[in-house]
Amino acid sequence: MTSFFADFFSFSFLLRALIGGSLVALCASLLGTSLVLTRYAMIGDGLS
Question: Per residue in 6-22, pLDDT tens?
């Protein structure tokens, strides 16, 4: 099992994709939460 993850992260493009996807998920979750809490949910629908 450990060798699977070592092989998976040996490819640089997969590592960059994982980091990029994590950053996008973090930004989207923070933006979505702040829009809902300030009752601008329709702006969130427009952004998506």
Answer: 777 788 898 899 999 99
The identity of residue 5, as a single letter, is: F
Instruction: Please indicate, yes or no, whether the overall pTM of this predicted structure exceeds 0.70.
Output: no
Task: Say how many CA atoms lie within 13 Å of 30 toward its Cβ.
Answer: 6
In this structure, what DSSP letter does residue 48 have? -
CA 6 → CA 3, 21, 30, 42, 47, distances in Å?
5, 19, 31, 43, 37
Instruction: Please tell me the distance from the alpha carbon of residue 11 to that of residue 1, in angstroms, as a whole number.
Output: 17
